[in-house]
Amino acid sequence: MSDKPLALVTGGAQGIGYACAEALMAEGARLILCDINEKGVKAAAEKLGNNTVALTCDMGDADAITAMFDHIESEHGPVEVLVNNAGVALPGDFLETPLEQFKKVIDINLIGTYVALQRAAKTMVANKIEGSIINMSSINAVVAIPSISAYCASKGGVAQLTKAASLALAPHNIRVNAVGPGSIDTAMLAGVNANPDAMKMVMSRTPLQRLGDASEIGNVVAFLASKKASYVTGETIYVDGGRLGMNYTC
Fold it and tell me: Engineering a disulfide at 11: which of 17, 47, 65, 158 sits with its beta carbon 3.0 to 4.6 angstroms away?
C-alpha cells in the first residue's frame, strides 16, 4: 500500500461513512466518496476538501458498482482501501414485510458489499497491492431485532463474507475485516433520540450509558486500514459500548 493510498468509502455522504472518510483523510489517504444521494455526496466531498472525489452509485446495482470501479481505475488509479459502508435498514412488521423490501436490503447491504469487495480485490491482486478492505457489519450480525429481519440477515452475511474473503485473499496479503457498530448517534437513530422511552431502552442495554459517535467508528476503520493492523484479518470489531457482553440483548 502506498503512503497516500486511494480510499473508496461507499455511503459516504453522511453519518458513519462520512466519519470514516474524515478519519482516513487524517491518516493521509486520498479519498473517493460514493453515495446514491448525488447532492449529499457532492456536498460531503466539498466539505472534506483535499480534492476529494464524489461519485453517485446505487450499491444495490451490481452493474453500476462495476462501472464505478472501471471509472475510478481509469481516472484515479486502483483502490487500495475499500470501506464497504453503504446500507439500509427498512424496518417493518415481520409478518407484513414484502419480499421485495427484504430483497432490497439484501441487494444493497450484502450483495453490493460482495460485488464491491470482489471487484476491488481483483484489481489489488492484479497489481500486487497489499490492500485493506473494511466491511460495515453491525451488532445485529449477532443479536436480532424483529422489525429489521432483513438487516439482521444481511449483516450476519457480511460477517461471514468477511471471514471467507479474508481467507481467500490472505495469500495475496490483502486484509479483509469488518466493524460492527452498536447504537451510534446518526440519522438512522434520530427516531430513538427523539423518544425518551426508546432512549431509555437503548441505555438499558448499553453499559457505557451513552450513544456512540460516528467518529468512534471512523477511528476503528482507519486503524484497520493502516499498517498498525497489519496482522489483523478476518475479524469483526464490535464498537458497541459493551452491549454484546451483556446477558440480555433487547
Answer: 17
Residue among 148, 138, 160 nearest 243 (CA): 138
In which element (H, E) is residue 142 found? none
Q: Strands of 175-181's sheet, edge to edge?
A: 53-56, 30-35, 6-10, 81-84, 132-136, 175-181, 236-239
Q: What is the pLDDT of residues 18-30, one digit of tens each?
A: 999 999 999 999 9
Q: Which residue has the cell 415481520?
A: 94
DSSP sequence for 79-122: -SEEEE---------GGG--HHHHHHHHIIIIIHHHHHHHHHHH
CATH of domain 6-245: 3.40.50.720
Residue pLDDT, tens place only, 128-151: 999 999 999 999 999 999 999 999
Catalytic (active-site) positions:
151
pTM of the model: 0.95
- Judge whether 30 and 49 are in contact, CB under 8 Å: no
Confidence of residue 199 (pLDDT cuts 50, 70, 90): confident
What spatial distance separates the first Cα and last Cα of the chain, rounded to whole Å? Answer: 41
Q: How far apart are CA 197 and CA 175, in angstroms?
A: 41
CB 135 within 8 A of CB 158: yes
C-alpha to C-alpha distance for 122 and 117, rounded to whole angstroms: 9
